[in-house]
Amino acid sequence: MEVRVIERGPLILAGLDFYGNPFATGEGWTEENQIGKLWSRFSAFMEEKGALVGNIVNPDRGYEAHIEPDEYGSTKNFYVMVGVEVSGIGALPPELCARMFPGGPYAICTLAGQEITSNWSDDIFKKWLPQSGYIEAHKFLLEYYDGDRFKGMDRLEESELDVYVPIKESS
């Protein structure tokens, strides 16, 4: 896993979301759990009605956001959003929601091949972060998929994706 720190501006995503434990029906990377089903619904929506979202920055780049609410520790429920970057909220179709993620410093963790299906969150949050001089700035992360580097789960060995973690210097 390669990690670098960048400064980035705010990010606005438009897409579909889910709240709950997405792994209750299937662990890991599978189309059968709630995250897989969310991607399927979003892909179908974009094929059918994507033209209604006129302010997409790049339709070949997608994001998956994981947002931990305060009750996560006791419930294991969290928000998952899949979507695309938009330049502004504007008039979105009613099926879609929008979320704004703050700008600031982010650790970008690049995962390649089998790392994508590994327990990479432990590598980030239990290994890299504690020794990095940083702490989490917010309780979310963003997975970034672009068509040039992420080839799909059936071509995992040829694929890469980035995980963005908002950070701040530890005191």
Can you tell me about this structure?
This protein has helices spanning 34-49, 72-75, 120-132, and strands at 2-8, 11-20, 61-67, 78-85, 97-101, 104-112, 134-136, 140-146, 160-169. The chain has 171 residues and is an alpha+beta fold. It has a single domain, classed as Multidrug-efflux Transporter 1 Regulator Bmrr, Chain A. The two termini are 26 Å apart.
Can you tell me the overall shape? globular
Termini separation comes to: 26 Å
**What's the alpha carbon Rg, rounded to whole Å?**
16 Å
Kindly estimate the percentage of residues that lie in beta strands according to DSSP: 35-45%
Biggest β-sheet: count, sense, barrel? 9 strands, antiparallel
- What's the number of helices? 3
Question: Mind telling me which CATH architecture this is?
Answer: Alpha-Beta Barrel
Low-confidence stretches: none
Overall residue-averaged pLDDT value: 92
Quickly give the structural class.
Answer: alpha+beta
And the CATH topology? Multidrug-efflux Transporter 1 Regulator Bmrr, Chain A
Domain unit count: 1
Give, in order, the helices and strands: EEHEHEEEHEEE
Q: What is the count of β-strands?
A: 9
Percent of residues in helical segments?
Answer: 10-25%
CATH class: Alpha Beta
